[in-house]
Amino acid sequence: MxxxxxxLIAGPVNEVFTVMRDKLPDLVPFLPEVESIQVLERAxxxxxxxxxxxxxxxxxxxxPKAVRPFVTGNMLRWKDHAEWDEAAMKVAWRLEPFHFxxxxxCRGEDLFAATPDGKTRMTIKGTLDIYPERIPGVPKFLAxxxxxxxxxxxxxxxxxxxRGVAGGITRYLAQKKA
Length: 178
Fold this sequence. Notes:
The chain has helices at residues 13-22, 140-177, and strands at residues 2-9, 34-46, 49-58, 77-85, 90-97, 104-114, 120-130. By secondary structure, it is of the alpha+beta class.
């Protein structure tokens, strides 16, 4: 399932891009659904190009109440593989589940563009593919029939969190200026 999110961030594009790339763990206090972000690897394969591997840990209390009894910390942990391109002002990313290795595939890119009023437009484009048939014990015919509904449900859960990153950057920049 494809998704697109556009958010305005109160800050100049170069600053927003740099904060998102280099200060991601510092944003955690401004991201209510995130418990921690740890940079596992960082490389600079060329001028203006950066490669990161980040480990995200979500907050168990951020999960919907109905599923909290079944959610463990490992279920809310994922690896974020990111390739930053400064010249294009974009990052290509791929999320890797920490607990359910092949249950889903999620990838996309974030584009950063200056607006005439000095803000930043962040456009997040991605795809999410869920494979419920890979869950042991779930009949394949049932899993395939449920797949579109499960994907829509998960995208509806994930998109507020993605929007929250934009709000977190805005709050982070405001605090830095205060």
